[in-house]
Write a structure and sequence with these properties.
Layout: E1 4-7, E2 16-27, E3 33-43, E4 49-57, E5 63-67, E6 88-91, E7 96-99, E8 102-106, E9 114-119, E10 122-133, E11 138-147, E12 151-154, E13 159-166, H1 178-181, E14 182-186, E15 197-203, E16 209-212, E17 218-225, E18 231-241, E19 250-251, E20 257-264, H2 269-298
């Protein structure tokens, strides 16, 4: 759901890193997903930063992006207080907050988000900032992504499969010169406290079972809040992070992180009873066919 993050060609000399990247992904039975995405962006200059480009897999290009950064100023917003570090509004007039123990400016997008096809496998989402991120500043972005095609149905009993890819390389991307423009992500900022870094959370639809099958370590838990901070029926959640052995370092294209698996509706007692009856009937039919076959064979 993210191949890389790029600077504008005119600003590629800037030293820009993402100190915190967090995706919370609510999967839907209809095949789509809603994503709450946090980015803490540090611009070490030498110039100001006016925009960034999210490069996403082509499968996720059927997407709507909404600026949700104003929620950083809502002390009651549920997801402001779901990090290990402190959250606090420091200077609302200047747009300064502390989030996950990082202090910075709340950034907002300027106008409509432009989404363009790049190559066969990728699309570009332009994030034009309403206020430039000045050299030496840290800024926070919070986005909501509505994606129509993420999930596929597998198996006879309704089971849904998903595979979310991050930082996977693509030879086709050479046309946009990612090596010169790429913004790297810190895998973790503090290995003891686990602050910052690259973090993924995936939620099954309410009251469904989640079975993650992933190449990274996963913690399972329960959550009952949606992307907008409203309470919903409980959801099973899986969380994935960069492997511990990666340590604290900058990661980007090629540092593949994938979280995948299935989710399904638990079989209710009545359904189990029906399945047992159907299985019993099938056995009786099979035995009857076997007996008839033996009788005809012995004639």
């Amino acid at each position: 759901m993210l191949t890389c993050l790029l600077k504008d060609r005119k600003e590629q000399s800037n030293k820009v890193t993402v100190e915190k990247f967090s995706d919370r992904v609510w999967l839907q039975k209809e095949g789509g997903a809603t994503v709450l995405r946090h980015l803490a962006i540090k611009n070490d200059g030498p110039a100001d930063l006016s925009r960034l480009y999210m490069i996403i897999p082509r499968q996720a290009a059927d997407i709507k992006v909404t600026d949700f950064s104003r929620t950083f100023f809502d002390e009651r917003f549920y997801w402001n207080n779901r990090t290990k570090g402190e959250y606090k509004i420091l200077e609302k007039d200047r747009g300064v907050v502390r989030f996950d123990d990082l202090e910075g400016i709340v950034l907002e997008l300027d106008g409509t988000v432009v989404i363009q096809d790049l190559v066969a496998s990728s699309a570009s989402v332009e994030l034009k900032l309403k206020r430039m991120l000045r050299s030496g500043e840290r800024g926070f972005l919070r986005l909501v992504l509505n994606i129509n095609r993420v999930v596929k149905t597998i198996g006879e009993y309704p089971t849904y499969g998903f595979q979310l890819k991050y930082l996977h390389d693509s030879r086709e991307l050479a046309v946009v010169s990612p090596t010169d423009r790429e913004v790297k992500f810190w895998s973790i900022l503090d290995e003891e406290t686990l602050l910052g870094g690259f973090d993924l959370h995936v939620f099954a639809p309410p009251n469904m079972r989640l079975e993650p099958s992933t190449e990274v370590s996963v913690d399972k838990a329960i959550e009952n809040y949606s992307y907008d901070g409203k309470e919903i029926d409980y959801c099973e959640k899986a969380r994935a992070r960069m492997r511990r052995e990666v340590g604290k370092k900058l990661v980007g294209i090629g540092n593949k992180l994938t979280i995948s698996g299935t989710y399904y509706e638990p079989i209710k007692p009545r359904a189990i009873k029906i399945l047992k009856i159907e299985s019993f009937i099938a056995i009786i039919i099979a035995l009857a066919a076997l007996i008839i076959g033996i009788i005809q064979f012995t004639k």
